[in-house]
Amino acid sequence: VQLVESGGGLVQAGGSLRLSCVASGSISSGNVMGWYRQAPGKQRALVGSITSGGSIIYADSVKGRFTISRDNAKNTVYLQMSNLKSEDTAVYYCAAGRSVLKPSDYWGPGTQVTVSS
Q1: What is the pLDDT of residues 1-49, one digit of tens each?
Q2: Distances (CA, A) of 81 to 51, 52, 53
Q3: Rounded to whole angstroms, how far apart are CA atoms 96 and 108?
C-alpha cells in the first residue's frame, strides 16, 4: 500500500491550498482516510478524518477553515485549506487505517505547507 500526497507549498496568510492523497495497492475502500500535520518541535496531530461513507471529524483548530473530501473511485482524499494562518505551517501527512480517531495503518511521506504572515 502506498499513499502519496501532493499540493503543498508556500502561501500567504489568508490564502488557500488543496492537498491531494492518492492511495494505491491493496488498500480497502472501507479504510478511514485521514490527514495529520506536524509542526517543528511539535507532535504529529490529527487534522481530520473521513470514512468511506463520508463521516468526517475535524480538529477544533481547523473547523470552519478546512474541508476533507474523498473520491472512493479514485482512491483519493483531499484536504481543502482556506483562510490559512501561520500556525498551519507544518508537514501534512495522509494516512489510512481502521480507526476514525487515529487512522494510522499506512502513511504517506508528507508534504510541506508553509504559510507566510
Answers
A1: 899 999 999 999 999 999 999 998 766 667 899 999 999 999 999 999 9
A2: 19, 21, 22
A3: 9
Q: Provide the grid cell at 72.
A: 472512493
Q: How many degrees, rounded to 5, is the angle at CA 7 between CA 70 and CA 40?
A: 105
CA gap 13, 24 in Å, rounded: 33
Angle at 106 between CA 79 and CA 96, to 5 degrees: 45
Distances in Å between the alpha carbon of 55 and those of 15, 18, 109, 114?
Answer: 26, 20, 25, 28
Q: How far apart are CA 26 and CA 37, in angstroms?
A: 25
Q: Please, are residues 12 and 115 in contact by the beta-carbon 8 Å criterion? A: yes
